């Protein structure tokens, strides 16, 4: 039996093994090509931003030279940065960074504090507040921006940093995400801290915050991307360069008769760099935070 | 503990409890106050504004109550129905393209593959690219008549197909917006599908293989049914996102050419911000809210039905 089935199995396996190895190679090459095609627009952007001027960019666009730059120069970036181009891009970039850092730091702090009280506090009415927050989560930003604009105008916050930070720091979604993490913390941990006589803030600060880094990172990443990409709201609320973010700045290139491709591309690369740095450093967390934003249901 | 110490101890405990309450309120209040002022208040006041003829920059005459006049005006406005139709058209086109592509890539990445994490990171790159940057890139790709897209079309058709003015031709403007939107956003659906695929137990595939199911049968009879919840979630989220379409349209086409890419949010933006007709725009905002609400309720319903 064994002497027969051994070679028979071999014979059955051998023909299928060779194509299987080949199919792995083919699959790998297919994925590689697909990935290159998908990423090629981004590659094209970086290459174009290094070209001499917009005439060069436009001239190269119709051929494979679009993906190649023979004499790379940082001239476009210099123009964008030193305001000698059409618009003060350095200013827009700094504005965006200020808005980003304040919103994310404040947002993580305020949302997690509120989530802690909702999860472990003793105040009456926590369940009602939580239900109301979940209900509010569904309201799309797009459908409140106009009343929000009148409100902001009325209190004299228009064209300010505050108008772009305060409305988005606290958010039902992020409170709920952190809440879901907090309620899974074992009761013993909370009890041990109360026995020591610590008040709610002490428990939150020195017991709960240190163990909730994953969910805080998730909220920071989601809120960060959301803030960085804001467009409709800053488009309406900023009238001058004072607090205008880079997204609106880049978009304003399109209004002109001939788009300043070189400046638009250099500015776009500059807008991507901070995100890319964070993405490369925390890639795993980026992906997992997008997933956890998905399973909030 | 002696009898005399008991009241003091109770007092201490009460004090601690009271302090705790005060601290809790102080911790909860900042977030709640911000949400109340910047989310709840504007949301509620949009219902009030929608019933008036309020302007963005107040006129000397106080706003007047107009009842459902704004809704009546919208619902009889041809441009509004066109915007609604455009959003529906966009949704119907972007759903299969974006979700189908996301599922395909997720299936590829779910297999044994060298450098799998590297590829996943690469495929996710467009998702972290800001829509404004995406517009800069795709405006160059769509350049008329010599942009890369037209070159590829000309090359593949041996020059038979004339260059297309992607963003300027009423027939092509919406498909062009669909394409760049799907490219930017599919990464999210891709990782949701990847998570869903990884949740399918290996034993199901082994059982199917024992039953003699081929690769294709395993896909249709094991993978697809197991992904049911994921499908529902992905379709709902993509639909809600699609109904909010604005940024790329505002930057690239301003709703044109000939209104073929005018969307609900763009219509609202034009009415409220450009034309300053706040009441009218608020009515649109409320309709948008109810559309999103209904779509989310459908999701809740379908998911609960399953459980």
Automatic annotation (TrEMBL), chain A:
One of its GO terms (biological process) is transmembrane transport. The gene is ugpE. The keyword Transport applies. Gene3D superfamilies: MetI-like. Part of the ABC transporter complex UgpBAEC involved in sn-glycerol-3-phosphate (G3P) import. Probably responsible for the translocation of the substrate across the membrane. This is sn-glycerol-3-phosphate transport system permease protein UgpE. The chain crosses the membrane at residues 25-48, 97-120, 127-149, 161-182, 203-225, 259-282. Pfam families: BPD_transp_1.
TrEMBL record, chain B:
It is found in: Cell membrane. InterPro entries: ABC_transporter_permease, MetI-like, MetI-like_sf. Residues 84-299 form the ABC transmembrane type-1 domain. One of its GO terms (cellular component) is plasma membrane. Pfam families: BPD_transp_1 (PF00528). It comes from the Bacteria. This is Multiple sugar transport system permease protein. It comes from Kaistia hirudinis. The lineage of its organism: Bacteria, Pseudomonadati, Pseudomonadota, Alphaproteobacteria, Hyphomicrobiales.
């Amino acid at each position: 039996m064994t002497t027969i089935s051994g070679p028979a199995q071999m014979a059955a396996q051998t023909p299928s093994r060779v194509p299987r190895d080949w199919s792995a190679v083919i699959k790998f090459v297919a994925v590689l090509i697909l990935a290159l095609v998908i990423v090629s627009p981004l590659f094209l952007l970086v290459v174009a931003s290094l070209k001499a001027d917009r005439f060069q960019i436009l001239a190269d666009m119709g051929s494979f030279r679009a993906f190649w730059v023979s004499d790379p120069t940082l001239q476009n970036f210099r123009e964008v940065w030193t305001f000698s181009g059409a618009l003060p891009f350095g200013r827009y970039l700094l504005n965006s960074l200020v808005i980003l850092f304040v919103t994310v730091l404040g947002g993580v702090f305020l949302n997690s504090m509120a989530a802690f009280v909702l999860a472990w506090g003793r105040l009456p009415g926590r369940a009602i507040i939580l239900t109301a927050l979940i209900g509010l989560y569904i309201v799309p930003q797009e459908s409140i921006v106009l009343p929000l604009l009148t409100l902001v105008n009325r209190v004299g916050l228009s064209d300010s940093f505050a108008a772009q930070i305060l409305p988005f720091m606290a958010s039902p979604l992020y409170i709920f995400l952190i809440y879901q993490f907090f309620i899974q913390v074992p009761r013993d941990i909370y009890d041990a801290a109360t026995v020591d006589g610590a008040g709610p803030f002490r428990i939150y600060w020195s017991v709960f915050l240190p163990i909730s880094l994953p969910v805080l990172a998730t909220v920071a990443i989601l809120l960060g991307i959301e803030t960085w990409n804001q467009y409709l709201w800053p488009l309406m609320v900023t009238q001058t360069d004072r607090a205008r973010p880079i997204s609106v700045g880049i978009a304003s290139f399109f209004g002109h008769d001939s788009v300043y491709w070189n400046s638009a591309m250099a500015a776009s690369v500059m807008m991507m760099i901070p995100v890319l740095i964070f993405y490369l450093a925390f890639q795993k967390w980026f992906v997992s935070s997008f997933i956890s934003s998905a399973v909030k249901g | 503990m002696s009898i005399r110490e008991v009241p003091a101890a109770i007092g201490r405990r009460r004090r601690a409890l009271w302090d705790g309450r005060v601290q809790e309120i102080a911790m909860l209040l900042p977030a709640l106050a911000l949400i109340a002022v910047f989310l709840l208040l504007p949301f509620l006041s949009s219902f009030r504004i929608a019933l008036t003829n309020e302007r963005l920059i107040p006129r000397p005459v106080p706003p007047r109550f107009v009842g459902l006049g704004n809704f009546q005006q919208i619902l009889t406005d041809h441009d509004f129905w066109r915007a609604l139709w455009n959003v529906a058209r966009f949704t119907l086109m972007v759903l299969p393209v974006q979700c189908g592509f996301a599922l395909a890539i997720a299936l590829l990445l779910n297999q044994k593959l060298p450098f799998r994490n590297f590829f996943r990171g690469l495929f996710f790159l467009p998702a972290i690219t800001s829509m404004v940057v995406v517009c800069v890139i795709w405006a160059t790709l769509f350049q008329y008549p010599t942009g890369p897209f037209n070159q590829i079309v000309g090359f593949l058709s041996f020059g038979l197909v004339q260059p297309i003015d992607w963003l300027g031709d009423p027939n092509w403007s919406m498909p062009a917006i669909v394409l760049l939107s799907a490219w930017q956003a599919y990464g999210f659906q891709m990782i949701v599908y990847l998570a869903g695929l990884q949740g399918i137990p290996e034993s199901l595939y082994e059982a199917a293989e024992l039953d003699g199911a081929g690769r294709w049968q395993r896909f249709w009879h094991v993978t697809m049914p197991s992904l049911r919840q994921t499908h529902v979630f992905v379709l709902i989220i993509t639909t809600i996102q699609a109904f909010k379409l604005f940024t790329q349209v505002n930057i690239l086409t301003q709703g044109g050419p000939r209104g073929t890419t005018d969307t609900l949010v763009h219509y609202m933006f034009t009415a409220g911000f450009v034309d300053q007709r706040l009441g009218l725009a608020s009515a649109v905002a409320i309709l948008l809210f109810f559309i999103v609400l209904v779509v989310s309720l459908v999701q809740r319903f379908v998911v609960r039905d399953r459980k």
